[in-house]
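Changelog-adjacent note: as of this version, every example in the card shows the full chain rather than a window. The one below runs 260 residues end to end.
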Amino acid sequence: MAHLGRRILVSAFAALLALPAGASEIQHRTEYKVALAGLTIARAAFLTKIEDDHSYKIDGDIKSAGLADLVTDILAKTSVTGVVRNDRLQAAKYVLYYKTGKKVRTYEVSYRNGNIVSATTTPEPRRPKEWIPVTQSDMRSVLDPISGLIFTGDTDVCSQKLPIFDGETRMDLVLSPKGDEDFSTDGFKGKATVCGVRFIPRSGYKRGRKDLVYLSKSNRMEIWFAKAQAANVYAPVYVRIPTEYGTVTITAVKYGRVNS
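Full-length structure tokens:
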């Protein structure tokens, strides 16, 4: 799996969570599959807990499967903590542990009032001379890759510009309306709002990197949002990502909630 594919897949998997803003003592488990050119290459599961004081925690596990296991073993664990405030999820800390083969990296990001106050990568990577560093201005008014793709029900979802930082790369996702589509899975059946996505890399990447250039020039990336039945929020249920190796799709195979 290409470097960019890993970053977007982890972020998109994590965003496939229909979190009921303002609810208390909620537990929510979601399950997904990811496919490349129609072949399953990974599976994921997330458990979300929202407490009485409106604090939340999301823990996720992603593992390669099928065809990908023949090439390399991929394992990712991610978590985010924060509070539900003004009908919006506001992260306090985001962590991603990522292992491919023998290579292991941990990314940790801390937030305060939407601004990044610290970001570390362990072990610290060696940057090429073409590296575009993340500046202080890039770290203001930034969304984490989990909470950033969840909206309250009165939001005009497909008219958003989302400033995302995933622990290494600062990017903008510019959404645009593309109509509605029928979508059905365990826990949901109805209309999904389809948004086209323009991917704009800002910093935290190697200048001229082929996968980033390819995706930034594409007009075929999409995210489908569905309104959760039990709460007035939209969250993604389907993501399509064009790559040089074929189209990657991420599909929610379970979309529901369980009260604790």
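Structural remarks: The radius of gyration is 17 Å.
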